[in-house]
Amino acid sequence: MIEINHLSKKYRRGGWALNDVNLTLNEGMVGLLGPNGAGKSSLMRILATLVPPTAGEATINGIPLSKAEDIRGMIGYLPQQFQVYPQLTGAEYLDYVGAMKGMNDRKRRKTEIDRLLEEVNLQDKAGKRVRTYSGGMKRRLGIAQALLGSPQVLIVDEPTAGLDPEERVRFRNLLTRFSLGRIVLLSTHIVADIESNCRQLAVLDRGRVRMSGDLAELQDFGRGKVWEGIVSEEQFAKLDPMSVVSTRRSEQGLLCRVIGEAPPSGSDGVLVRPTLEDGYLALLRTSQRDGVFGYE
Questions:
Q1: Residues 165, 171: Cα–Cα separation, whole Å
Q2: What is the DSSP letter of 244?
Q3: Shortest CA distance to 228 belongs to which of 279, 262, 251, 192?
Q4: Which residues of 74-93 are buried (b: 16+ CB within 10 A; e: fewer)?
Q5: Angle of helix 90-100 versus helix 106-119 axis, rounded to 10
Q6: What is the pTM of this model?
Q7: Tell me: the pLDDT tens digits for 128-184?
Q8: Over the stretch 44-93, which tens digit does the pLDDT of each residue have?
Q9: Where are the alpha helices (DSSP H) in the chain?
Q10: Which residues are paired to 249 by β-bridges?
């Protein structure tokens, strides 16, 4: 379990990145959802003991963040900006990381590295130098290094960046398998990354927690606020672009899906069942409208 109590982070020039964050995260896949700049990476870096909080506290499996060495021994971490040694091969890099993690049995270390390379579909590139890898391949190598040593808690920040659709599915399935009996905290701004795999989620918006719970709770934020209707191009030009979720051309005009208290002006719009993304967007619009930004 990860328990976060009144956690805040303030940077000298950037203001409040996190403001009074309170969360309890349980076993399984946990999604941390929010737009760019919401404070997700700051929270991840604090939990990984890379930066200290300005105020508040957190514990991982009962151990406070102040005991950094104990925390680092139980977590795997993939940062948003993942740096590797370009002169090493993929296998050499993982062997180096494994040794740094205290995996001293070389035979066991090699067995686990071979398994992980296959899991992330890099077994054919294991002997190639990392400098020859594509961005997506480097990302998969980062996933493998985070999984080395079977950590009790896995923290991954925007892990699907640079991955193609097939790789994204493979990665999400890999994390789901790994989350059995563990906590996997997945930070993303892409709803699809958490839609089919996460049991619990939290939404951050400009440093504050806007909601936490299950996926159905987030979806409910869109109930009674999602409309579909056909409008002309002239009518479409007058719509608030922030309210439009999607647009598709039809013989009668533009079929628009919008979020709001009323259907698109001039259309015969009808209420429709919200998707998870609709609920997320409706929540963010409420946050922005109410001025809940988390900064001072």
A1: 10
A2: E
A3: 262
A4: ebbbbbeebebeeeebbbbb
A5: 130
A6: 0.85
A7: 999 999 888 888 899 899 999 889 999 999 887 767 888 788 888 888 888 888 899
A8: 999 999 999 999 999 999 999 999 999 998 999 998 887 888 999 999 99
A9: 40-47, 68-72, 90-100, 106-119, 135-147, 165-178, 192-195, 215-220, 233-237, 276-290
A10: 254
